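User: I'm preparing a small set of examples for a lab meeting where we compare how different chains pack in three dimensions. I only have the primary sequence for this one, and I'd like the structure in token form so I can line it up with the others. Please keep the answer compact; I'll paste it straight into my notes.
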Amino acid sequence: MRLLADVDTGIDDALALCWLAAREDVDLVGVSTTSGNTTASQAAENSLAVLEICGVDGVEVCVGTPAPLVVPASTTPETHGDHGLGNATLPQTRGSLSSRGFLDLWLDELRAHPGETTLLVTGPLTNLAAALRAEPGLPELLARVVIMGGSFDHPGNTTPTAEWNSWVDPHAAAEAYAAWEGKPADRLPIVCSLGVTERIVITPERLAELIAGAGPDPQRPQVLALLADALEFYFDFHAEYGYGRLAQVHDLFAAMVALDAVPWPAMTTWVGVETTSELTRGTTVRDARNLWRRTPNARVVTDTDPDRVWELFRDDLTRLVNRPAPPGNSARGA
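Assistant: Understood. Below is the structure token output for the 334-residue chain.
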């Protein structure tokens, strides 16, 4: 599968990138970044470093839009640490960030391979909205879109009603969903919202299981060090905010949905985003009963198998950390 990843690489984005690096059924054709968990530029540095730690060289990483469409930029160092990856110390990267703008990356790839590429968006939808403004035919150029964002009939994690990505850039989210109204049902964005993603957790016990399962002499110990240092910070954050000593790894689940690696039953529905009210900024609404008779523009994931998500991550990462480095240490999606 051809995949473009649009990320704001904090901790759970990093886990998603690690898992994608472990898979042999994905061709990661590029990575772009937004401002969200950290700044767009820091997210790009983080993404490049994570991929290289996982043994993936040669993937183009572009710095995306530095700020939301309308509201001021927000980041969350209390959640992901000052540089976005908790307590992890990143090595000097061998490669460099792309000098191209993210739009050039997206449109070059999509126009060269129309209808063949999945877009995974795990940060605010700023880049997606900007790309739609530049190329209104974007929905037809994509195979599909998978979004981590929103909260439906479930408390928010940023305000009482709003999820972080939708709150950071509500105007972009509103524009993005509106662009898919009237599109075929099987091409509508797949939305992984908090009601499901908050059930996807890694605990200290699971982290210990992964490290022990890698054996005494893994080929890529730096991957395990990254996970341990990042997740320890994430455990502390979740404990401080009353979730318990665990880590909700929202973006990892979205990556698995993008590859159809786990079950994702979904409701086809209309989704809107509040942009004008300070009280409910970024709140996402789905018309579950079709009261407004609006044309559907999204498929909202309603359930999954959380244990299967963990088992798949554990098994794939175990293989990754024991995979010998290829000659020249170069790989795309391998």
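A couple of notes for your slides: Residues 159 and 279 are 9 Å apart (CA to CA). The first strand starts at residue 2 and ends at 7.

User: Perfect, thanks.
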